[in-house]
């Protein structure tokens, strides 16, 4: 992937990154920053700060600027497949990304361990794209809360490629999945239960709060 070239207007980025070699968390929710500077900064951080653990980009309205999303994700593409997946949480909540934004993320080739896509108007089409990406994404945690895709969204998320499926290893590596307020019913719980039985993922944490169409008994059963 092509790296974002630092312009004269963004010379400050190099100085800032050099001054914070031990930076672990970057929170830019609702920040007032132009797209060129944002991408330049994020590329510089991911390339030069090895201990970076969290990037928060909530409420930036990136759904209307999907080219910027593509540039951001390109900075998370490993140089080669032998490169270990970096332990990084990218928070893109509340950006109105929609399925178009999910498509860019899923096709980017990016690898990271944790991704938040809460409150982004994702439908079953978007969860289907995520399903195809999960096995190669490196993701251990995925947060999809407050996307009202319902049971059809879960059905799409749980679709597997038979060529990748194995009885001896999980289809993907997710250990944490957030599905609060996604308009799920008992049908979703049955699908999730069946998928986990057949080694879809080694989940240790499943969050299904505020799905009011779901019966209390079904939650207990899961």
Task: Chart the SSEs and their pairings.
Blueprint: H1 11-19, E1 25-27, H2 35-48, E2 54-56, H3 66-74, E3 89-91, H4 98-106, E4 114-116, H5 124-137, E5 141-143, H6 150-157, E6 176-178, H7 186-197, E7 205-207, H8 216-221
Parallel strand pairs: 1-2, 2-3, 3-4, 4-5, 5-6, 6-7
Helix pairs in contact: 1-2, 2-3, 3-4, 4-5, 5-6, 6-7
DSSP summary, beta strand count: 7
List the helices and strands in order.
Answer: HEHEHEHEHEHEHEH
> Mean pLDDT score, rounded?
91
**Strand proportion:** 5-15%
Give the overall shape, derived from the CA principal axes. globular
Strand order of the largest sheet: 1-2-3-4-5-6-7
Helix content: 25-40%
Structural class: alpha/beta
The Cα radius of gyration reads 18 Å
Poorly predicted regions are: none
How far the N terminus sits from the C terminus, by CA atoms, comes to: 42 Å
* Count of DSSP H/I helices: 8
Largest sheet: 7 strands, parallel
Kindly list the characteristics that best describe this protein.
alpha/beta; seven-stranded parallel sheet; 9% strand; 222 residues; globular
Task: Describe, in plain words, how this protein is organized in 3D.
This protein has 8 helices and 7 strands. By secondary structure, it is α/β, with parallel strands linked by helices. The chain has a 7-stranded parallel sheet with strand order 1-2-3-4-5-6-7, with no helix packed on it. Helix 2 packs parallel to helix 3 (66-74), helix 4 (98-106) packs parallel to helix 5 (124-137) and helix 6 packs parallel to helix 7. The chain is globular, with a radius of gyration of 18 Å.
């Amino acid at each position: 992937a092509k790296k974002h070239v630092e312009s004269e207007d963004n010379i400050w980025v190099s100085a800032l990154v050099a001054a914070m070699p031990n930076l672990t968390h970057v929170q830019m929710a609702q920040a007032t920053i132009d797209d060129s500077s944002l991408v330049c900064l994020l590329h510089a951080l991911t390339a030069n700060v090895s201990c970076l653990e969290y990037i928060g980009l909530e409420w930036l309205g990136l759904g209307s600027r999907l080219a910027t999303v593509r540039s951001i994700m390109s900075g998370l593409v490993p140089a080669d497949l032998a490169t270990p997946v970096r332990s990084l949480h990218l928070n893109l909540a509340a950006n109105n990304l929609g399925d178009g934004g999910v498509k860019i993320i899923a096709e980017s080739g990016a690898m990271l361990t944790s991704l938040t896509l809460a409150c982004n108007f994702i439908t079953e089409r978007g969860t289907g794209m995520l399903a195809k990406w999960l096995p190669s994404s490196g993701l251990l945690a995925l947060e999809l809360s407050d996307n009202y895709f319902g049971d059809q969204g879960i059905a799409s998320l749980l679709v597997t490629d038979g060529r990748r499926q194995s009885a001896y290893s999980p289809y993907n590596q997710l250990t944490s999945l957030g599905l609060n307020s996604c308009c799920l019913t008992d049908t979703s719980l049955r699908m999730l239960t069946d998928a986990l039985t057949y080694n879809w993922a080694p989940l240790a944490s499943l969050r299904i709060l505020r799905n009011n169409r779901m019966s209390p008994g079904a939650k207990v059963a899961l």
